[in-house]
Amino acid sequence: MMQVVQLMMVDCKQAVNLLIQNRDLIAPSEVVSQLLNTRNKCDSRYFLHLYLHSLFEVNPHAGKDFHDMQVELYVEYEPKMLLPFLRSSQHYTLEKAYEICDRRDLLREQVFILGRMGNSKQALAVIINELGDIEEAVEFVTMQHDDDLWEELIHQCLHKPEMVGVLLEHTVGNLDPLYIVNMVPNGLEIPRLRDRLVKIITDYRTETSLRHGCNDILKADCVNLSVKYYNEAKRAVCLSNEEDDARSKRDASRASQVITPSVRNMEVKSKTRGGGRCCMCFDPFSIQNVSVVVFFCCHAYHTTCLMESTETNSTNKKGTGGPSEGLYEYEYEEEQEDDNGSEAGGPRMRCILCTTATS
């Protein structure tokens, strides 16, 4: 059996590192047992503290069975490390830890343990009456997200003028300062009350100005994005098969994007409202070997159907004496250069159904 105590007495730091690195060969329970049952005249509890502390830093769960013991060891040898340990570990008994901290008057540790136990009001009383730190009290109440706790904080500070003043400074954004002022007893002299009220009003104006500015920026962004989305939604996407590459290149000026899928997956990639069918002839796209134009409104057409519809409308308008400039009114539009670098004044293909519905 390895003599842990002898190694610790030779060089405790090197021994701890050696034991941590070889914890698979000698279990933490064995190390703790040897250190607790040693008969040598040495500070075995200090060695135990060094070992468990190093073990916790390497693996917080490796020595979870000894975390109650670690609370006592931290209090005895390294009190400053107790609070980080309490925050990191989930394997110690809250009641035992609170009793130990209460005996040693470790107030901040008591506050943390009481908060974890759910005794928020008692923890707040310790902060105000024992620590006298109103800023920490405000931070504690803010983290609890409990409106009743704010009321408790106000009531405990009402008869302490300095705390009322500090409370007014640090509750902006959490409580209405006017509510606190109305609850202050008549005749209570609050130090530097005028300066604090001026600061509260200034902070409130700054916060209001920032909110208005953020709202204006948000509204402007919404409008700009809506306009951009509207312009993008008016564009068409041309879907063509490999045999129609030449034709798709000729129509590239009218389409915003050219995609060359196979006939088999064309219907899958063009999930339109027509269920993979042309919105003019209602034939499935897969049975005709022609290009397909899809709009962002999810309407899709065979290119031939779209052109025939254009010619039909043009003939009808000429027969009725309509102006020739309006023949492509629903099909093209004049726009300025957009974000994608489209030329100004270039024709844009538009959805017949949507344009007709809105006209």
UniProtKB/TrEMBL annotation:
Residues 277-319 form the Vps41 C-terminal RING finger domain. The keyword Transport applies. Residues 328-341 have a biased composition (Acidic residues). CDD domains: RING-H2_Vps8. GO terms for cellular component: HOPS complex; late endosome. Keywords: Protein transport, Repeat, Transport, WD repeat. GO terms for biological process: cellular response to starvation; endosomal vesicle fusion; macroautophagy; protein targeting to vacuole. Required for vacuolar assembly and vacuolar traffic. This is Vacuolar protein sorting-associated protein 41 homolog.
